[in-house]
Specification:
- By secondary structure, the chain is of the alpha+beta class.
- The protein folds into 2 domains: about 10-160, Chloramphenicol Acetyltransferase, CATH 3.30.559.10; about 180-450, Nonribosomal peptide synthetase, condensation domain (Chloramphenicol Acetyltransferase, 2-Layer Sandwich).
- The protein contains 13 helices and 14 strands.
- The strands form 4 sheets. Strands 5-6-7-2-12 form a 5-stranded mixed beta sheet, with helices on both faces. A 4-stranded mixed beta sheet has the order 8-14-13-11, with helices on both faces. Strands 1-4-3 form a 3-stranded antiparallel beta sheet, with no helix packed on it.
- Helix 7 crosses helix 13 (about 435-450).
Length: about 450
Amino acid sequence: MNGEFEDDAVPLTFGDHYVIRAGAGAVCDSRLHNGVAVRRPGPAPDPGSLCGMVAEAVRVRAPALAYRLAGKGLRMRWEPDPGFDPAHHVEFHRLPAGVGVHQAVMDAMRMRPLSRERPLWSLMVLQGNDGAEHVLCYRSHHLFQDGMGLVMATRALLGTGTLAAPGTGGAYLGPPGPARRALGDLRRMVSAPPRWFTARPGGPPDLRLQVVHLERALFHDIARTTGASIAQIGLTLVTGALRAWNPSAWPAPDAGDREGDADPRLGAAGRARGGERDKRRGRGRGKGRGELVVALPVGLYGHRRHTGLGNHTALLPVTLPCGEPAALDRLARIAEQTTIGRIGQARQSGRELYGLPAALAVPLLRLMSPLFGKGSPRRLSVTTVPLPKELGAQGEVFIVPGLVPGLAGIVVILPVGESVTFSGVFDPRVSRPEELLGLLRRELTQLHALATR
């Protein structure tokens, strides 16, 4: 994004403007808050020491956390908050009796708004009544940070990570291109998907967080025999769980198809050829009844250059082959869509999109905004987030994702320590979301048995 600003101001990116437009129809602003929570033993730090720790981290390792939103329209920008006070960004809560820790953190995140007059983040402390454990949760507004920024800022506050100075990262390289591919992908991802869930008219008014921890060693076993990554395996598990959770949403298998009919000895390349066979059979094109397109975020640059300020991600459309009856074929279909080459193409398309000047990007997003949250929430988002080892060593770590307008559900895959953690948040109109996450363990067991037989 281009513009004339003060030397210490940072213009909004295309991704920032996208979040503004996508979040315009949110029921409440807290639905755009994301968090990284660490569950730790023992009593919580006292307010004085915690504020001192935050002040030191912002001053030395994370200067972007002192930036706030300023201006309007094309003049919107990030600028240093002249009145930055760490005490305004540390809040204390009690872990209520009878409520699970995961849900308690989500409820606390939705309890207090983030002031637009200050940097859009807070460090939440949730203390148990007996002092046996506490939770530290860094939460930020999606406008303030993307997923990598969220994790890197958490590491800077609770660990030893350092963020690049604002304005030095550079979200795109080279001159802007036509951006036609990225715009086409964006339109495809925000269009209405097939009905993948059973709706319920009533239900709890608040969002519910579901967290499942799976054994990471099983993922490594599958990776050794198939060549797939943890992210690809995780997407495959979500696909299989969706298929088992709501079987009526997906077409019946073709004659001759059988669950598990792929040969794991073929390896990833051989199963990719099987995916080409599926395309010829008509299951690989478009968005048919057995196809659900999700948007997979792709960072425009690595964590060493991330300032922790703003959104710097492209989106890669990935079709979840929920209509595919064979688990290994589902994995092959996912793998062929998420190759290094395709990720690189998405990154380059994103850089072209981010190269558009604000004078073009803002009106363009305004024209597209009716698509973002049109009608009842129906889209599903699935994403993966990398986590630094030092955070995983502090205790149980889980993500608390937001749910922007248009999304009926979001699942975040987080490899951490000896586990791969899945965090899911669903609109209250989605029936039985806890069963969907519960099926992931079964899907992992079945895929592991097929891949290692």
